[in-house]
Automatic annotation (TrEMBL):
<dbReference type="GO" id="GO:0010181">
    <property type="term" value="F:FMN binding"/>
</dbReference>
<dbReference type="GO" id="GO:0005829">
    <property type="term" value="C:cytosol"/>
</dbReference>
<dbReference type="Pfam" id="PF03358">
    <property type="entry name" value="FMN_red"/>
</dbReference>
<dbReference type="GO" id="GO:0016491">
    <property type="term" value="F:oxidoreductase activity"/>
</dbReference>
<dbReference type="InterPro" id="IPR050712">
    <property type="entry name" value="NAD(P)H-dep_reductase"/>
</dbReference>
<dbReference type="InterPro" id="IPR029039">
    <property type="entry name" value="Flavoprotein-like_sf"/>
</dbReference>
<feature type="domain" description="NADPH-dependent FMN reductase-like">
    <location>
        <begin position="1"/>
        <end position="142"/>
    </location>
</feature>
<dbReference type="InterPro" id="IPR005025">
    <property type="entry name" value="FMN_Rdtase-like_dom"/>
</dbReference>
<protein>
    <submittedName>
        <fullName>FMN reductase</fullName>
    </submittedName>
</protein>
Length: 187
């Protein structure tokens, strides 16, 4: 099994990437799957004017990103809450892809510097993902006060509590990944 962990904030001083670092370490340390941390800040994508499937000559970066999502058995989307919504960088790549997202088991992790952990992001993000045919898992993972919950290197302040929540969340994702594999056997 292979999990893509999508770190979606491209802001300077971002805190949500800390959670991406943590998830990659956790998945690998516990041998849940192989993990690929995809950092949108590394890509510096422009605002796309067309979906990948209609691009005549997509850049190697676009093809690389699409391949990394397509090759994943499941995705963990880590998004901050910006003014009640998710970042434009995430909407940009949701809209870019089509078949790569189709029926892909995906868990949503929301973060905020405030007390609610990005709860306001869910309705709009889930709707955007559903429109692309993404299989959004029912488990939720919210990180309030992210700047205190994780250090810059992705280490949690409350190791025991964080690992317990992470295990439950990832068990749900892995169950969905295994179910998808059984429903769609390779040719």
């Amino acid at each position: 099994m292979h999990i893509a962990i999508l770190s979606t904030s491209v802001r300077a001083g971002r805190n949500s990437h800390r959670v991406g670092l943590y998830f990659k370490k956790y998945v690998e340390k516990n041998e849940i799957a192989t993990a690929d941390l995809i950092d949108l800040q590394d890509y510096k994508f422009p605002i796309f004017e067309e979906r990948l499937r209609f691009m005549i000559d997509p850049s190697p970066q676009i093809v690389d990103f699409a391949t990394r999502i397509k090759n994943a058995d499941g995705v963990v989307v880590i998004t901050p809450e910006y003014n009640g919504g998710f970042p434009a960088s995430l909407k940009n790549v949701i809209d870019l892809l089509s078949v790569e997202w189709k029926r892909k088991p995906t868990g949503i992790v929301t973060v905020s510097t405030g007390a609610f952990g990005g709860v306001l992001v869910y309705p709009s993000l889930i709707f955007s993902l559903w429109k692309k045919g993404v299989w959004v898992i029912p488990a939720r993972y919210q990180v309030p006060h992210v700047q205190e919950a994780f250090d810059e290197n992705g280490y949690p302040a409350d190791i025991t509590g964080t690992e317990k929540r992470t295990q439950t969340f990832l068990q749900e994702l892995v169950w969905c990944m295994e179910a998808r594999e059984k429903m769609n056997p390779p040719d």
